[in-house]
Amino acid sequence: LNSTNNFWFLDMGFFSLNYHTDDSVVKYERVENVDSDLASNYDFAFVFKLLPDENGIPKNQSSTAKFVIKRLRKQGFETFTYLSVQNDELVVLIRPNMEKLEKFADKINFRIEMDPSFLKNIIVEGQPDHNIHPRPKGITENVTKTNPYHHIFGRYESKVEGKDKEKVEEKVDGKGERKAKGEKDEMYLKPKGTQGPFSINNKLKLINYMIRAPKSFGGCNLNISNLIYHKEMLNCFPLHDRNLTDQLLNAIFDLKNWLWQLPFYDVKEYFGEKVALFNVFIGHYSQWLVVPSIIGLAFQLVVWATNVKTFSSPVLPFYSVLVTVWGIVMLEYWKRRQATVAMWWGTTTFEEKELDRPEFRGELIFSYIDGSPMLYYPESDLSFKIMSSIIVISTFMMIMCGALAAIYVLRFTLNSSIGSSEASYVASALTTALILVLNMIYQVIAKRLTDNENHRTDTMY
Asked: In whole angstroms, what is the distance from residue 43 CA to residue 92 CA?
């Protein structure tokens, strides 16, 4: 057990020490059987390198670790710290205060899926206060295969009409009687395996935003990518839930499921839309490959039967045409599939409604469109910074071209003195070294230029 700078580290897997204060004296008692799956109760992990003491033994926390832990605690995150197996790294597990996370989601206009039954009740019964007239049941449910009340996304509100956890009522049997339907969370679809309205994917998104967001939005204002880039933090990553991963793996490796029948929605809820959409494409591609594989086998049999020596046949051009047509049709059907999946997952207008990067800086003004507060960054400033970046990049290109030209001149000069083969080896070695060195320098400058451009969204960044 190390007690460095008032932070206590617990060696996981061996034993834990609970401590309490009695008359300003800290007393400790040994507690056996530490929960080995403690990480499943937390959401994110930060890893910091411990600094060596006067004897060269890693024991001291870095100032960055203290600063990060302090910021996280200030914004309501619960933390648990322990040492790595090698005793040279500090691991910090965190989980959010759900009430603060809900308020943060409300403040940044986070969108989540609405509950279909709640929406259906609104449509069927109407809401005169909002000029929504009642509609007969089933009037639109048989028009399309997709239920009209499903896959509707709305802005999350921690309060309903200004009253926290206001009761939402519904009519019963058309008799004018009313009963409480539930609290505000009844408005939102409750994901499987969660207690609140946020799926694991959405919860991790919100935690990520909250860690990076400015203090004015209720965030911690921590630039994690910069801390990792400058090696002040070793890593930051979300933690797995073993129960959910086991369920997901069992479903994926179920031999009864083809590649295009995998639980893509569950993959999306756990790993996010980007990973899930890639798997949807792999499933679509695999399903469509069945057609050319069967036709290709038939054509291959014809080739073997007609020309064994050269494996050539007059039927091959026809197969080439079929594959070309197949490729076009497969991609066109993928566009339809992609649009449908985007509608199901609420990402159809993602770039239009994408949240601002927490690192984005600007002047707080009121929108000229709807009067809501927004951050404004002049387009002229962005254009000037992009032009500056283009000048720097062009300079690097000219340096690279000049250096390569110099190497080739040196090569031709050395041909007469050491021979063409040796000159070629020297030129190749110099070219490799030049590329490696300039690439290292360019990576540093390119990141700084991109950060300096102050892009509004992650997509633009």
From this structure: 11
Contacts for 30-37: CB closer than 8 Å, 24+ residues apart: 34/10, 36/12, 37/242
Considering only CA atoms, give the Rg of the chain. 30
Neighbours of 359 (CB within 10 A): 18
Single-letter amino acid, residue 150: H
Question: C-alpha distances in angstroms, 422 versus 18, 408, 413, 417, 429?
Answer: 69, 13, 12, 10, 11
Q: What is the pLDDT of residues 291-308, one digit of tens each?
A: 999 999 988 888 887 766
Pairing of strands 44-49, 235-238: antiparallel
Residues 322 and 293: their CA atoms lie apart, in Å, by: 12
- Give the pLDDT confidence of 326-340 residue by residue, as tens digits: 999 999 999 999 999
The tokens for 164 are 């926290």
State the DSSP code for 179. E
Question: Helix or strand or coil: residue 286?
Answer: helix
Cβ distance 7 to 61 under 8 Å? yes
Convert 32-80 into a string of H (helix), E (strand) and C (coil): CCCCCCHHHHCCEEEEEECEECCCCCEEECCHHHHHHHHHHHHCCCEEE
Instruction: Show the tokens assigned to 132.
Output: 């929504």
**CA–CA separation, 253 and 256 (whole Å):** 9
232 to 48, 91, 198, 267, 448: CA distances (angstroms): 7, 14, 31, 33, 17
Q: How confident is the model at residue 141 (pLDDT cuts 50, 70, 90)?
A: low
